[in-house]
Amino acid sequence: MFRWLRKPKNEAQNEAAAAVPAAPQEIDVAATEASADGEAAAASDGASVLVDTRPPIDTSIPLLTVTGVERSFPVGGQQLHVLKGINMELYPMQLVMLKGRSGSGKTTLLNMIGGLDQPNRGQIMFKEYPFHECSDDQRTYIRRKEIGFIFQSFALMPLLSAWENVELSLRMAKVPRSEWKPRVTHCLELVGLGKRMHHRPFELSGGEQQRVAIAKAIAHKPSLLLADEPTAELDSQMGAQVMAVFRDIIRTERMTICMTTHDPTIMEVADRVFEMVDGKFISH
Ligand SMILES: Nc1ncnc2c1ncn2[C@@H]1O[C@H](COP(=O)(O)OP(=O)(O)OP(=O)(O)O)[C@@H](O)[C@H]1O
After folding, report:
1. Which of 26, 44, 107, 265 is 20–30 Å from 113 (CA)?
2. Entry's Gene3D superfamilies (predicted)?
3. Tens digit of each residue's pLDDT (9 = 90 or more) over 255-271
4. 31 lines ligand 1 (CB under 6 A)
5. Whose CA is nearest to atom 13 of ligand 1?
6. What is the CA(83)–ligand 1 centre distance, in A?
7. CA of 101 to the centre of ligand 1 (A)
8. Ligand 1, atom 29: nearest CA belongs to which residue?
9. Which of 7-11, 46-50, 213-217, 262-266 has the lowest mean pLDDT?
10. Whole-number mean pLDDT of the chain?
11. From ligand 1's centre to the CA of 76, what distance in Å?
12. What is the rounded CA–CA span in Å between residue 27 and residue 243?
């Protein structure tokens, strides 16, 4: 929860000289909390400070730990070893990228991290949940609550508006109906689509469609957002917009994002890049 702590204007102007500051007035802006527009307005009037009143997150404790993970698939009577001993940690509020040649195993790993698949060997701890030991039903339950997915191809319902697409994901996540309106508004504003909420996918550009898909993926407030080549179908400008939205999401929604990409310019904004070669990470 963010709150604007607004000081009286004359006090803000004379801040350095003020001997006894008056008590700040709290203004709850939950519906538009931390939207990029709101923040810019606050910065420019010089009279408000954005104060995050949520409890702090300990960013030194991993959100997810992958230890010695191996995965092989039976192909033509033989085992195809795709992941050959993966170790990694994802920390809260990080932007992590997986890079590597086509077929190196990035999507296979992303599927494990997201609880869609399980390793043949090794461990995956997501928060307090041992994904490597959980049943399908348990992983589905955790996934619906804690993880969001974004795909290269947007995966939107074509006949539903942006608003209805995001609302649908709240319905599927069994979020109470009373929370839908503020949450859908917040998510669509966060991705910069406040003015296009009622457009259907075919009325939006590729970059806008991907931003609807992002709003849809974060609507249920997951702690981990996984994205498989989210910028691959976009030109460089739209790709950069998506990355700016990811940065905003990490800051305001306090999510961790793990994505795959082939694009070196996109990698420049990562907190951490893991390079996969033939089923293993190589260190630089
Ligand atoms: N269910 C499966 N059954 C058999 N082989 C599979 C299966 N899933 C993945 N593979 C194989 O595992 C290898 C790695 O695939 P993966 O999709 O993880 O690679 P990737 O690095 O994501 O590639 P790209 O960048 O092209 O998406 C490929 O050779 C693929 O054919």
Report:
1. 265
2. P-loop containing nucleotide triphosphate hydrolases
3. 999 999 999 899 999 99
4. no
5. 103
6. 10
7. 11
8. 103
9. 7-11
10. 85
11. 15
12. 30
CA dihedral 231, 233, 235, 236 (to 10 degrees): 20
261 lines ligand 1 (CB under 6 A): no
How far is residue 31's CA from residue 116's CA, in Å, rounded to a whole number?
Answer: 33
How many whole angstroms from 142 Cα to the centroid of ligand 1?
A: 24
Is 75 touching ligand 1 by the criterion CB < 6 Å?
yes
Spatial separation of the C-alpha atoms in residues 107 and 118, rounded to whole Å = 13
- Enumerate domains of the chain plus CATH numbers: 2-52 (no CATH), 64-282 (3.40.50.300)
Work out whether strand 121-126 and strand 280-282 pair parallel, antiparallel, or are unpaired.
unpaired
180-235: per-residue pLDDT in tens? 999 999 999 999 999 999 999 999 999 999 999 999 999 999 999 999 999 998 89
Could you tell which of 84, 107, 266 is best to mutate to test the pocket of ligand 1, judged by most ligand atoms within 8 Å of the CB? Answer: 107
Alpha helices (runs of H) in 78-226, residue ranges in sequence order = 106-113, 136-146, 162-172, 180-190, 206-218
107-158 residue pLDDT tens: 999 999 999 999 999 999 999 999 999 999 999 999 999 999 998 887 899 9
Report the residue among 78, 83, 108, 116 best suited for mutation to probe ligand 1: largest number of ligand atoms under 8 A from its CB. 108
Residue 57 binned pLDDT confidence (cut-offs 50, 70, 90): confident
Closest-CA residue, ligand 1 atom 18, reads 105
Q: Which amino acid is at 120?
A: N
Question: Looking at the predicted complex, does its ipTM rise above 0.95?
Answer: yes
84 forms beta bridges with: 70
